[in-house]
Amino acid sequence: MLGHHYTHTFLETAVASVNAGCNLELSFGMRNNVFMHIPQALAMGNITLQMLRDRVRPLFYTRMRLGEFDPPAMNPYSSLDLSVVQSPEHRNLSLEAAVKSFVLLKNVRGTLPLRARDLSGQRLAVVGPFADNPQVLFGDYAPVPEPQYIYTPRRGLEMLGANVSFTAGCSEPRCQRYSRAELVRVVGAADVVLICLGTGVDVETEAKDRSDLSLPGHQLELLQDAVQ
């Protein structure tokens, strides 16, 4: 609320928030956050003890219902580890969910679908900063699996037995440094080209928005060079 000039201090923000019914602050990494000023607001009489109890009660009621205060032995999830989370059953379910998902694409000249049986004699080029970088494939607030469980576009296509060549063109989504000569070499020798572009959390995430909708850095130039 300070950023919107609704209040001028964290103390004012704490008073306004509690009086409005807010009972939870998300301020990760802030040692002196807004709700740390609640004791001062209470001492000054800006909020009452009963109001504070009313705000806290649903929080702890929910935490109790979630079992946060139960002994670990009572929690059926405490015995789970990555061998369960990344079990074949769960990975197969994730694959099924991915297969049944869909994206609308403009299918010019009947290019799609790319069938595995048709790729054996084809030369594929997979290019772009998102073609083989597992770290940039996940958005904000998304769990990042262990690298061996992540299938980048390049890795997925190589599993089909296709003749795949690759170049990132630029090593990260901001694409400040672009190797045009390498891209032209790889694309020029290919029958089919897949260009993997985007933003990623390095470019935009919570509290870090883009100023426009343009592709970052030299990504548009990379795309144009690949098409030409």
TrEMBL record:
<keyword id="KW-0326">Glycosidase</keyword>
<dbReference type="Pfam" id="PF01915">
    <property type="entry name" value="Glyco_hydro_3_C"/>
</dbReference>
<dbReference type="GO" id="GO:0031222">
    <property type="term" value="P:arabinan catabolic process"/>
</dbReference>
<dbReference type="InterPro" id="IPR036881">
    <property type="entry name" value="Glyco_hydro_3_C_sf"/>
</dbReference>
<dbReference type="InterPro" id="IPR017853">
    <property type="entry name" value="GH"/>
</dbReference>
<dbReference type="InterPro" id="IPR002772">
    <property type="entry name" value="Glyco_hydro_3_C"/>
</dbReference>
<dbReference type="InterPro" id="IPR044993">
    <property type="entry name" value="BXL"/>
</dbReference>
<dbReference type="GO" id="GO:0009044">
    <property type="term" value="F:xylan 1,4-beta-xylosidase activity"/>
</dbReference>
<feature type="domain" description="Glycoside hydrolase family 3 C-terminal">
    <location>
        <begin position="103"/>
        <end position="226"/>
    </location>
</feature>
<keyword id="KW-0378">Hydrolase</keyword>
<dbReference type="GO" id="GO:0046556">
    <property type="term" value="F:alpha-L-arabinofuranosidase activity"/>
</dbReference>
<dbReference type="GO" id="GO:0045493">
    <property type="term" value="P:xylan catabolic process"/>
</dbReference>
<dbReference type="InterPro" id="IPR036962">
    <property type="entry name" value="Glyco_hydro_3_N_sf"/>
</dbReference>
<protein>
    <submittedName>
        <fullName>XYL2 arabinofuranosidase</fullName>
    </submittedName>
</protein>
